[in-house]
Amino acid sequence: MNKNILSRCVIILLFISACSLNFSPAHAQSTSSAPVRVAVAGITHGHVSWILSRKKSNVLLIGIYEPNNELAQRLAKQYGLSTSLIYNDLGKMLDAVKPEAVVAFGSIYEHMKVVEAAAQRHIDVMVEKPLATTLEQALKMETLAKKFNIKLLTDFETSWYPSTVKTYELVNDSNYVGQIKKVVIHDGHQGPKEIGVSKEFLGWLTDPVQNGGGALIDFGCYGANLMTYLMNGQQPVSVTAVTQQFKPNIYTKVDDEATIIVSYPTAQCIIQGSWNWPFGRKDMEVYGQTGYVITVNNSDMRLRAQPDSIEHTRKVTANDVVVYEDPFDYLADVIRNKITVPENGVYALKTNVTVVRILEAARESAKTGKTVYLKK
């Protein structure tokens, strides 16, 4: 072989090798079947049990950041985890374990810190709902995600529901109800203290800074997410909200009752988030020009449409629609490039920036007693 050609081949191979070495392993996503290496940032959120107790092999827990050592030790013992996984410094943990993704289970306010740390290391992130406490935070997160080319997902329980996906299909794919006119969404429970959440969870959940508000944020976010999804990302025209404290002796700093009206040029959404329901609920009613779809829970639905106008009941399962009933399965397939996050999907960054925009407008409306008109 010609020496010049051989030399060029060697140079090219060395260049490719150097690029491979310099490319961050945390962001080297492929369709590999290897478990996705995941770290947890914060464990004060009650839903952290979903990842700490998870036994599926497609996700490997390799690190836990939590500054509250007593809590970290307690949960490690509870879930049979090695204390060697625990770090009290987020940056040190990320540099030491080099995860492919981080899941945030601290306060909503702390999501900003997690995204800032992960993005500059090219590590993808999934946070618990909602994305942020303020629109300023949400927009900063969006900028970071785009700058460092990371995926930034927001997880809602209702994203796992077969009934949520089927409703979208009936509204947008089959045109079962015609053009949406009114949507009513109910979310909440008896109250975080009443249902017995941990002291660490209750501490920030009832803090106006760490959570951004009370029931308005905690459960209003579900309705904002679902309506933005159903409307394919359309931005609302205005938001009007009323909040109340029915239990000021328990929830001294935040609202425990919220009603939000989100208006569009051709539709309206009423979101009822409450810590005063007599039982837990996550359901919605979608009314169009020719019919309606009511999701009773994650699988049971009530349907009625012209021309027969007879109400039908239906049970929908994961066999009937394409849905991930486990958010970490979804995260793993996103990281492995097996699926693409739809731009206006329930997990999508664009959708969840809009969610925070709606929540911030609702908070302002409740405070001022005036309708807030959103800028185009």
What's the short version?
The protein is an alpha/beta fold and 376 residues long. 34% of the residues lie in helices and 22% in strands.
Describe the structure.
The chain is α/β, with parallel strands linked by helices. It folds into 2 domains: 29-156, Rossmann fold; 158-324 and 345-373, Dihydrodipicolinate Reductase, domain 2 (2-Layer Sandwich). Helix content is 34%, strand content 22%. The chain contains 12 helices and 15 strands. It has helices spanning 3-22, 49-52, 69-78, 90-97, 111-119, 135-147, 162-173, 199-205, 215-218, 220-230, 327-335, 349-368; strands spanning 36-41, 59-65, 86-87, 101-104, 124-128, 152-155, 180-188, 238-244, 257-263, 268-274, 281-288, 291-295, 300-305, 312-315, 372-373. A 9-stranded mixed beta sheet has the order 14-13-12-11-7-10-9-8-15. It has a 6-stranded parallel beta sheet with strand order 3-2-1-4-5-6. The longest helix has 20 residues, at 3-22. The model is unreliable at 1-29 (pLDDT under 50).
- From N to C, what is the helix and strand string? HEHEHEHEHEHEHEHHHEEEEEEEHHE
Terminal residue distance: 64 Å
Task: Predict the CATH topology of the largest domain.
Answer: Dihydrodipicolinate Reductase, domain 2
Give the overall average pLDDT: 93
Strand order of the largest sheet: 14-13-12-11-7-10-9-8-15
In the CATH scheme, the class of the largest domain would be Alpha Beta
Per the principal axes of the C-alpha atoms, what is the gross shape?
Answer: globular
Low-pLDDT stretches are 1-29
Whole-number total of structural domains: 2
Going by CATH, the architecture of the largest domain would be: 2-Layer Sandwich
Radius of gyration: 23 Å
